[in-house]
């Protein structure tokens, strides 16, 4: 007796087992990223004796450029080859990363490891986003993205704190990166053995796709070419392009937090363990907050949450620049995490709202190209400004850019939620 494939159904509840598995897989993806948050800036300064913030931030630049480019290809490849093969490829790329960080004899090895990390994160995180949008269907995209991003960034936070503890007690190498190696092994095993393909769910949704009543999306046809998808997501379509610039600025300030905050805190005399706590608080609030903000965007709509989130982030960055104590920086980290939580899953939900299911994976790839390009822009901008005028000046510049991005969203984006426009 031959086994027949189960017909795909849309909805989180209808696909709860696979959806939950993909949440866990994305937690492991976040853990691979989190192994670097606390340790790498300190490794640059104390082991490799790097001077000059621009040179120190080369690893953030390498990560941002490769992740941004890989995001774009992950979207088109997942349509061409299927979601699961792309996810599996991302885990295979991750295998040498912890080993390179453990044994790196020079900073060039660290930069090379971050090139591989960018490819890993682009393939795995993009694909888990696409797969959850496939499974969830149109009704609960905000909730789906909130759960996805929460899993990833809670794992970043937990791993940042854990690696800070390991580094304080056992040294900067190898203990913190052994945790990353365990994440890679688990992610590869779960993906190979248990994750199932979701492309059929997107095709099913395409057959049920209905036009927006106000006719706003009538020019966005199912048969768009790759070039047209890139143009609409980057510039032409107001909501998609506003989301892309907001995503870029959001990750610009995340790149600043990743690369320069530990150095700022260290120069203020904080211990490694306290730096680890600060490195964890921001992504922890970001991660947990998305469990609230994702579903909230399904009830209240997308636009105003994004605008508010960018302005809260700007205020948090201003507080980082002004403060000089552990307590004040904890408050700033909480605010920065809360602002990012308002923005992060909601921007992905906007892409899912506007893009047709046939080219949605490619739109996600283009959006994530711009969003994660913010790491590279942030690394260069923050590094140059910090070298010229100091770390606090770099934080002020990024705070102003973040506030301006929120104003652009308020002016250019329209409400995209199907029940709120």
From TrEMBL:
User: SUPFAM superfamilies per the record?
Assistant: MFS general substrate transporter (SSF103473)
Which stretches are transmembrane? Answer: 12-33, 53-74, 86-104, 150-168, 175-195, 256-285, 305-323, 329-352, 395-414
Membrane topology, from the record: Multi-pass membrane protein
Keyword set includes Protein biosynthesis: no
Q: Name one Pfam family in it.
A: MFS_1
**Keywords on this record?**
Cell membrane, Membrane, Transmembrane, Transmembrane helix, Transport
Please list the residue ranges annotated as the Major facilitator superfamily (MFS) profile domain.
1-199, 239-421
Q: Where in the cell is it found?
A: Cell membrane
Q: Which superkingdom?
A: Bacteria
Predominant location category: membrane
Does the keyword section mention Magnesium? no
For this protein, the record's CDD domains field holds: MFS_MdtG_SLC18_like
Report the PANTHER family cross-referenced here: INTEGRAL MEMBRANE TRANSPORT PROTEIN, RESISTANCE PROTEIN MDTM, PUTATIVE-RELATED-RELATED
Q: What is this protein called?
A: MFS transporter
Identify the species of origin.
Amycolatopsis acididurans
Mind giving the lineage of the organism this protein is from? Bacteria, Bacillati, Actinomycetota, Actinomycetes, Pseudonocardiales
